[in-house]
Amino acid sequence: MKIDGACHCGAITVAAEVDPQDTTICHCTDCQSGTGAAFRVTVAAAGDSFKMTGQPTAYLKTTAASGRPRIQTFCPTCGSPIFSTSPGEHPRPSYNLRVGILRQRDRLLPKRQIWVRSALPWLAELDAIAHSDLATVPASQKIR
Ligand SMILES: [Zn+2]
Ligand SMILES: [Zn+2]
Q1: Is the pLDDT of residue 95 over 70?
Q2: What spacing in Å lies between the alpha carbon of 129 and ligand 1's midpoint?
Q3: pTM for the structure as a whole
């Protein structure tokens, strides 16, 4: 499946070929702090299919929860996470693209969850949390 996307400000664009079966939710604490969100959703792109415009900032996380060094990249202007990969020369074997920046994100259904021992406990009850299409939940639905 061909995918493409851009960071929040548009300075960085990506395109690649992915197998949607490789869409994964990661609940590790690195992904929580690295996204500022409850979990990270990634899809693995084969290195030789990966194309990018713009220059992300990269840093090497040497103490990842997995114990392996990982390069994390993000847009230096808007901060959107772009991908993680292993240290080495381009093209690397794979790039774990951040699904939230991809235009096809609604078609990339996660197939597995990893590091569930650090998953935030309220995720299992997500449907029970008051929700709305609007930016705020109407007062009548708020749980007090
Ligand atoms: Zn950006
Ligand atoms: Zn993770």
Answers
A1: yes
A2: 31
A3: 0.86
